[in-house]
Amino acid sequence: MLGTASASAGELSFWHAYAGQQDKTDFINFALDAFAKAHPDIKLDVVPAEQSAYKTKLNTAMASGNPPDVFYTLPGGFLGAFVDGGQMYALDQDLAKDGWGATFLESALAQTTKNGKAYAVPVDVDAAVFWYNKALFAEHGWEAPKTYDELVALAEKVKGEGLIPFALGNKDSWPATFWFQYLEMRLKGSGAVAAFVNKDADATLLPEASDAFARVADLAQKGYFPIGFNGMSDQEANMLFLNGQAAMLLNGTWQIGASKDAPEGFELASFAFPAVAGGKGDQTDVLAGVAAAFGISEKAANKADAVTLLRFLTSPEVMTKYVELRKTMVTVKDATTEAAAGPVLYGISNGLMKSAGHLDPFYDTAMPPKATNAYYTSLQGVLDGSVKPEDAAKKVEDALKAGQ
């Protein structure tokens, strides 16, 4: 019966969150039609949902003990809760067969691995980079900075021209996290939050977190962000960038799609977050998180067919089509082709991502809920000057140590 989680031999229930958005719908329709032709013996009971409602829907099914066989999931704490509850099937033996596991970016597979076992296959990945308008930079003779000191010096030049150096709309709290995390990564190194999540007794953000918060506060105090940025939406900040009122924007690779309606003459380009002098981290590391993954329920009666479905969905052919339709990088090696991705996204995938020492997942999705809230409120307070950087660092550290 459509919508039920149980399935007999040759049948699988499959839940996904690709409804409600044209590019997502186009992809999943392509993938499932192709699967039906390649494997006519495996029948799928497909249950679609929109991203906003999906998490609640899946959590309810898992809590009721009636999970779908194969399903879309998120990495980090969301997946981790199911693993802790013994509800996920470990994929390690399957990934070891015929080199399937080797087709994934190792750093991406690590984000769906817990306690040394892989519990889902990663599908797509978003990276945070600096975006700029090549035409605006050429007009003013500006060059993409290689060091953080050069970035701050450029911001001062931009401000001197009467423009906003960095677009930022932090009303929803997450946009400013890229600033703090990159500075923490450059100063301390990647994996700091992951160490807390993995219950490493030596895990800490300190002392570098105080420095990272202080640097973010300094940017705000110097007026490098828009007036009222803490109450401004990400969409409003994006308009400042696209209209040439702001010179740069630190944002995810979804910015390519968000720039489709830019005025004529706008030419999107990117550069890596610059190196921080004296930083102990690998300065090539990239803030990049797995956005979606697929897993199999431990209760699934037909795990062989479930694995067949996952292998098909993550095949190079299907993943390249994903890139073509959604203009998003995927976790399968060499599937993000230039023809499918376009020059801007391909440049990031083939350059920045391949040369990265590590990919560090987004802190706010990796953290447990209460720690994420402490992170958001502390960072907003630092930005508006109401919270001291050292106090913010301690609050986030304490929240992570509490593990909630």
Automatic annotation (TrEMBL):
PANTHER family, per the entry: MALTOSE-BINDING PERIPLASMIC PROTEIN (PTHR30061), MALTOSE_MALTODEXTRIN-BINDING PERIPLASMIC PROTEIN (PTHR30061:SF50)
Protein name: Extracellular solute-binding protein
Keywords of the record: Periplasm, Signal, Transport
Any one Gene Ontology molecular-function term assigned to this protein's record: maltose binding
Cyclic nucleotide-binding domain span: 34-137
InterPro entries assigned: cNMP-bd_dom, SBP
GO cellular component: ATP-binding cassette (ABC) transporter complex, substrate-binding subunit-containing
Protein family membership: Belongs to the bacterial solute-binding protein 1 family.
Pfam families: SBP_bac_1
Source taxon at top rank: Bacteria
Keyword set includes Amino-acid biosynthesis: no
PROSITE patterns in the record: CNMP_BINDING_3
An individual GO BP term: maltose transport
